[in-house]
Amino acid sequence: xxxxKHGTRNKRGDWAPHKPVEYAPLFVFPMRAKAILKxxxxxxxxxxxxxxxxxxxxxxxxxxxxxxxxxxxxxxxxWLYAVNAVCVLLFYGAFEMHLYALKRQANRxxxxxxxxxxxxxxxxxxxxxxVDNILRTFLSGVTVWTAIEVGMLWAYANGYxxxxxxxxxxxxxxxxxLVVPIIHEFHFFCVHRLIHTRLxxxxxxxxxxxxxxxxxxxxxxxxxxxxxxxxxxxxxxLILPSNPIIMLYQLHYAGFGAIPGHVGFDKxxxxxxxxxxxxxxxxxxxxxxxxxxxGDALVxxxxxxxxxxxxxxxxxxxxxxxxxxxxxxxxxRKKDGxxxxxxx
Length: 344
Description:
The structure is a single chain. By secondary structure, this protein is mainly alpha-helical. The protein has two domains: 3-311, no CATH class; 312-344. It has helices spanning 33-44, 47-61, 66-69, 74-101, 129-157, 170-178, 180-195, 198-209, 224-231, 244-255, 258-262, 281-289, 301-305, 313-343; strands at residues 7-9, 15-17, 267-269, 275-277. The strands form two sheets. A two-stranded antiparallel ribbon has the order 1-2. β1 and β2 (15-17) form a beta hairpin. This is Sterol desaturase/sphingolipid hydroxylase (Fatty acid hydroxylase superfamily).
């Protein structure tokens, strides 16, 4: 497939799409009914349906009985960790194998022309990005994910979380299920801005940003504190009228849903002429520039707070203008401080 029909490649081999990143039309005013109707299938397919289906499958075949979950036990917690770990290995590993190990589509649609395995760096354990990312994923990521999952299921089983049934409250649960991605977006943006503050960035979030050229295993390569904050998206269901299956969907949206944003490719080829959009460009730009796109492109939070970059030349100019303003403010503060010191 010719990726240059959809984008451009520079001298370094980096690919960028022709079209700038756009926000979902659901939050564009005045609302455009035609654009929304055209966009709706993309809201569900393929990613959200996959994560929702995995939650249903977990509830049907993996999650213990309510009676078992009423008592915290290493047995069923270890079982859930094992299942989560195997599912992450299979899901993440499939993307890694297809795109990075076998390189079945070479660097077609790849934002950064280089592959992470090509370079060693002391920023990573054993100086290898993949080794570092994989270890952090299983040692901390899946562990924190499972701990929150166990805690939430225990809360449901003991009546500490509002548990509605699909028979009694179908419309309420349908609405809650529909807004799971919006809850994730809001939570992710708030947490992301928090961990970009100077102290938390240095000691916590910098671990994730070591992967400047992200790949599938970068998705959950984080500091344990960031894992706790990130998977804390499930805690909204302690307040919302919800259901354990929807709570699992929320967790899976965070856990498995981290892949599309870090896959490193704009499109994943699944045939000679068929591709799946990753919608990863907005988050790739965050890894590239650090101080833009704290959220994804579902809710225009970055636009409202002035940190949006759509990948265009205009977006780059706006980012540079923000940097200049900040430098000018810092220089002015420094000058004022020096003047006060001289006056004293």
